[in-house]
Amino acid sequence: MRAIKRVSFWSMAAVACTAAATSSAQVALPIADERVLYEVIGEFNNSGSASQQYGYLSSVAGLANAFSSTTTKNETTALFTFVTSATTYQVVNNGPFRIVDRTGTTTIYLNSGPSDFTNPATFSQGMPIQVSNYHQQVILNTGTSTFLTVHTNTITQVETFTLDGVAYRLGQVGRSFRTNYSGQSNAPGAVPSGWFAGTSIGSRSTAAD
Predict the structure, then answer these.
(1) Residue range 4-45, pLDDT digits in tens
(2) How far apart are CA 45 and CA 53, in angstroms?
(3) Are 81 and 108 contacting, i.e. CB atoms less than 8 angstroms apart?
(4) Contact yes or no for 192/42 (Cβ under 8 A)
(5) Residue 168 burial class via C-beta count within 10 angstroms: exposed 0-12, middle 13-18, buried 19 and up
(6) Taking the mean position of all CA atoms in its chain, how far away is CA 58?
(7) Which of 53, 34, 56 lies closest to 45 in space, CA to CA?
(8) In what order do the strands lie in the sheet with 166-170?
(9) Is residue 42 within 8 Å of 122, Cβ to Cβ?
(10) Less CB within 10 Å around the terminal CB: N or C of the chain?
């Protein structure tokens, strides 16, 4: 019985050590106040009050490379993709400007295969690793069809993911970041509805990390 108990003890200890090692090996990619978090590139399709925005992260703070290739850097090699599903709740016109407000949800994915801008569904084919609530203001110049946006995301869910044998978590629940897009709208009725690129910056928060 003593030998059996000893074996059982070491088995339990091994499990505990493995769990501790796994926990200690996990790397958090935190939301740092007023620091650049992500660089984003994407397209969007608008239909009535619905807006679908999709693309990829070309840079992620804390990671050396956001692509599976060191030479080809575009949607086909992006490690992280995103999709925002939003609804317009207000439109205000002021001279040449059209101001559009939207709310919705953004999901960032660990991409599982090449994405393709001709097929928006390929930007949500991977593992969801971060979900956030989303509020956007768009300022469209109706004369040039160019626009600027500012939007805020507040994280509601994160999931651990693995890259090159290292476990990561992208952000922390309760933290927020704001993103600015610079974009160009397409001709009315054309697909996609437009293109954009931008930068996400950590917002100050009192939420516990």
Answers:
(1) 333 332 333 333 333 333 444 689 898 989 999 999 999 999
(2) 7
(3) yes
(4) no
(5) buried
(6) 11
(7) 53
(8) 27-29, 166-170, 161-163
(9) no
(10) N
Chain segment 161-201, per-residue pLDDT in tens: 999 899 999 999 999 999 999 999 999 999 999 999 999 99
Cβ-contact 56, 72 below 8 angstroms? no
CA proximity to 55, closest of 82, 77, 79: 82
Tokens at 196, concatenated = 């954009």
Backbone φ and ψ of 21, nearest 5°:
-65, -40
Candidates 203, 200, 202, 204; CA nearest to 38 is: 200
Average of per-residue pLDDT across 110-130 = 97
**Measured in whole angstroms, how far is the alpha carbon of residue 120 from the centre of its chain?**
15
Tokens describing residue 192 = 């996609």
Mean pLDDT of the chain: 88
- What tokens were used for 45? 């399709």
**169 to each of 8, 95, 159, how far by Cα in Å?**
33, 44, 6
Position 10, amino acid: W
